[in-house]
């Protein structure tokens, strides 16, 4: 899959998740921690990706071993509006492509107040 195809697919998936959150009453303007998840096949790659993200202040990245993979979680405190989510998620897609790790999407708590 090309980077453009990955970005288009990712934007579609992000929008579908946001539609579902909207139906549950989420107030997108309230900042909250959003977790972006990537998977690396080895610890060296997980450490490199986490360091790249932290050094460039794209978010707060850490990793843990998860069965035969390493799970990288990047936390960004932000509103979950479509333009922000799609931008940061797009960045994570590009990081995944650049470093050869799997980007597995994002999640957050819903804010209804």
Largest sheet: 4 strands, antiparallel
What order do the strands of the largest sheet run in, or round the barrel if closed? 2-3-1-4
The helix count comes to: 3
Mean pLDDT across all residues, rounded?
A: 96
Percentage of residues in strands: 25-35%
Write the topology of this structure.
Layout: H1 3-23, E1 32-40, H2 43-55, E2 60-66, E3 69-78, H3 82-99, E4 102-108
Antiparallel strand pairs: 1-3, 1-4, 2-3
Helix pairs in contact: 1-3
Model description:
- This protein is an alpha+beta fold and 113 residues long.
- The protein has three helices and four strands; from the N terminus they run H-E-H-E-E-H-E.
- The chain has helices spanning 3-23, 43-55, 82-99, and strands at residues 32-40, 60-66, 69-78, 102-108.
- The protein has a four-stranded antiparallel beta sheet with strand order 2-3-1-4.
- Strand 2 and strand 3 (69-78) form a beta hairpin.
In short:
This protein has helices spanning 3-23, 43-55, 82-99; strands at 32-40, 60-66, 69-78, 102-108. It is of the alpha+beta class and 113 residues long. Pfam families: RraB.
């Amino acid at each position: 899959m090309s980077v453009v195809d990955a970005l288009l697919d990712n934007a579609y998936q992000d929008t579908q998740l946001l539609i579902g959150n909207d139906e549950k009453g989420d107030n997108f303007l309230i900042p909250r921690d959003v977790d972006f998840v990537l998977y690396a096949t080895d610890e060296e790659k997980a450490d490199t990706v986490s360091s790249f993200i932290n050094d460039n202040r794209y978010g707060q990245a850490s990793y843990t071993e998860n069965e035969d993979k390493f799970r990288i979680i990047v936390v960004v405190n932000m509103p979950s509006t479509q333009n922000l989510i799609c931008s940061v998620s797009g960045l994570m897609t590009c990081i995944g492509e650049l470093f050869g790790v799997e980007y597995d999407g994002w999640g957050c708590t819903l804010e209804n107040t």
